Amino acid sequence: MKVKELMVREVKACFPYDTLNAAAKSMWDYDCGCVPVVDEQSRVVGMITDRDISMAAYIQGTSLTGSQVASAMAEQVFSCHPEDDVNTAENIMREHKVRRLPVVDADGHLVGLISLNDIVREAARERALKGPRQVSDMEIAQTLAAVCAPRPAGAFARAA
Questions:
Q1: Residue 34 and residue 138: Cα distance in Å, rounded?
Q2: Is-contact 48 56, C-beta < 8 A?
Q3: What does the buried/exposed string (b/e) look like for 119-131 if buried means 16 or more CB atoms within 10 Å of the residue's CB?
Q4: Are 48 and 12 in contact (CB under 8 A)?
Q5: Whether 93 contacts 9, CB under 8 Å
Q6: Is residue 159's pLDDT more than 80?
Q7: Residue 51 in contact with residue 135, Cβ under 8 Å?
Q8: Taking the CB of the first residue and of the last residue of the chain, which one, N or C, has fewer CB atoms within 10 A?
């Protein structure tokens, strides 16, 4: 199964110069826990999560309207491509302990987002159909276990 079959195509993104308040509002309005950060050409340059926003507000001691997304976003972005197998996306999630991946084209332009939730819902759909399965429960369990594993003390890294 390919990433393009499961990814969300209409993804709300923000810019590095947007306020944290604007990013938080998008997450609230669109019921999502992260927003890809893009440049003027829609190339992914970062990711920001609801946790990034709340921790930045606490650590920086500023209001959400007084800080830009760039001050809290993860600049190291792990992504996949629409033609990648879902297993490839899961491997990236496991390796980098992230629940969501922006899906980008060959030039790095945002074309979608795939999350562990999308993969789990597909596994449940396949299980209900009682036919051949392309997403295994074992792979999902391994991915979830890797993503949820505690990071070593002092290994703070903002990742989506």
A1: 26
A2: no
A3: beebbeebeeeee
A4: no
A5: no
A6: no
A7: no
A8: N
pLDDT tens, residue by residue, 56-80: 988 888 888 989 999 999 999 999 9
β-bridge mates for residue 109, sequence order: 43
pLDDT band at residue 138 under the 50/70/90 scheme? confident
Place of tokens 């195509």: 9
| In contact, 114 and 103? CB cutoff 8 Å | yes
Nearest to 118 by CA among 101, 94, 142: 101
Task: Give the integer Cα–Cα distance in Å for 104 and 108.
Answer: 5
pLDDT in the model for residue 154: 57
Task: Please check whether residue 2 is in contact with residue 25, taking contact to mean a CB–CB distance below 8 angstroms.
Answer: no
Judge whether 85 and 1 are in contact, CB under 8 Å: yes
39-45: average pLDDT: 96
Say how far apart CA 86 and CA 5 lie, in whole Å: 9
Domains of the chain (ranges; CATH) run 3-148 (3.10.580.10)
